[in-house]
Amino acid sequence: MSLDRLPTPAPVVDLDVLERNLARMALRAQQAGLALRPHAKTHKTLQIARLQLAEGAIGLTVAKTAEAEVYAGAGFEDLFVAYPVVGVGKPERLLAVARRAKLAVGVDSVEGARALGVPFAAAGMRLRVRIEIDCGQRRTGVRPEDAASLAREVSALPGLELEGVFTHGGHAYEATSDAERGARAGEEAALVATAAAAIREVGLACPVVSLGSTPTLEGLGDAMGGAGVTEARPGNYVFHDATQVALGSCTLEDCALSVLATVVSVPAPDRAVLDAGSKALAADGRRPTPDGHGIVVGTRSRVARLSEEHGVVAVAPGDAFHVGQRVRVVPNHACVVSNLHDVLYAVRRGEVEEGWPVAARGRVE
Ligand SMILES: Cc1ncc(COP(=O)(O)O)c(C=O)c1O
User: 213 C-alpha vs ligand 1 centroid, how far in Å?
Assistant: First the structure.
C-alpha cells in the first residue's frame, strides 16, 4: 500500500533509517568492546527486536515483568528486566519467565531481592540479579560506595545469583552541550565500573557491568571501552526523536519514527491544526529544553500545543499549510509514542511494507 493511503494519525517507521540506526549502534558497541543488549522499551515490537538480534545483540532489556512475559512467550531467550521488580505476584511470574528464557533482574534493596528469591529457592532455581547503581540520575539505584555491602547481603540470600551491576546515564538527557553529555557518559562508565571493582574487592564475582542510554552512547561509544564495562543497553537509538536531535545525539535525518498526520484546519495564517494530538504524539516535553511537541518534517514549523485530538502547529514564517495536507511529525519522545499505538507501519520509499503490532505496549505491570 502507498503511504498516501494510510489513515491518519499513524506512526510510521522509515525502514532505511531504522536499518542504518541498528547497524551503526551495533558497530559502535563492537568497536567499544561491549555486548549489546538493547532496551526494547522504545519499539515494543517483536519484529524490531529480531532485527536487533540479527545485528548481533546478545539479548534484550525490558522494564517490566509483563514485557518479559511477552518476549519470553515469543521465544526470546535472553532477557534482562532493568528495573527493581517489587510487588505482589511478580517473583512467581518471573519464575515462570525464567523457566522459558535466561533471565536477569535488577535489584536495589535487600527487601526487594529477598522477595524475588523466595519462589526460586522453593523451585530449586536461582534468579540472576544485577545491582542497580545510581550514576547521577537520582532515580533508582544505590550509590557506587554502597554497592559492595548490598552485593554481600544479596549474595547471601537463597534463590539468587549475583550476576553484576547496571546503571543508566539518564541524567545525560539534561545535558545542554556535547561536553556536558560527554562528561555524563564518562561518569556513567566510571561509576558503574567503580561499583563492580568494589564488589570484587569483597571477594564476590561481578562478571556483568552494564550501562547505557542513547545520549551517552551515541557518538561517545569509544569512550566506554577499556573502562571495565561489558554491556551497553541503548533503547531510543532505533528511532531517535526531537529530544535526541536537541541533545546532539543525532540529526533529524536519523529519526526513523514519525507520526503521519493530516491538516484538518487552518484557522489563521499562523496556525494549522493536525489530527494528531496527545493521544498520537504523547505529551512529553522536549529535553533538555522545552520546544513544543514535535518537528513538522520538511518545514521550520513546530507542533506548539496539544490537546487530546488536536496538534496545533505554530506556522513559521515562509511555511504554509492547507486543509487535507499530510505531514510527518517527529515526536519529542519516540518510546512513549510507540506505547500509544497498536501498530507501527514500516515504510520504505513511500510504500508501506508491513504493519508491526506493538506487542508489548501497555504492559504496565
Ligand atoms: C534502565 C534503563 N536502561 C536503558 C535505557 C535506554 O536508554 P535510552 O532510551 O536513552 O537509550 C533506559 C531508558 O529509559 C532505562 O531506563
Answer: 5
CATH placement of domain 15-239: 3.20.20.10
Distance from C-alpha of 224 to C-alpha of 55, rounded to nearest angstrom: 20
> Counting atoms of ligand 1 from 1, which one is nearest the CA of 82?
1
Which strands, in side-by-side order, build the sheet including 231-232?
A: 35-36, 231-232, 208-211, 160-166, 127-132, 102-107, 78-84, 60-62
Interval between CA 234 and ligand 1 midpoint (Å): 6
Q: Where in the chain is the domain with CATH 3.20.20.10?
A: 15-239
CB 107 within 8 A of CB 154: yes
Residue whose CA is at the smallest distance from ligand 1 atom 3 = 168
**pLDDT tens digits along 260-311:** 999 999 999 999 999 999 999 999 999 999 999 999 999 999 999 999 999 9
Among the atoms of ligand 1, which is closest to the Cα of residue 233?
Answer: 4
CATH homologous superfamily of domain 3-10+250-357?
D-serine dehydratase-like domain (2.40.37.20)
The string of pLDDT tens digits covering residues 103-120 is 999 999 999 999 999 999
| Greatest CA separation for the chain | 70
Taking the whole predicted model, whether its pTM rises above 0.85 is answered as yes
Closest residue (by CA) to atom 15 of ligand 1? 168
Alpha-carbon span 157 to 348, nearest angstrom: 51
Q: How far is the CA of 240 from the centre of ligand 1 (A)?
A: 12
Range(s) within the chain of domains with CATH label 2.40.37.20: 3-10+250-357
DSSP 159: T
Beta strands in 85-166 (DSSP E): 102-107, 127-132, 160-166
Beta carbon of 281 within 6 Å of any ligand 1 atom:
no
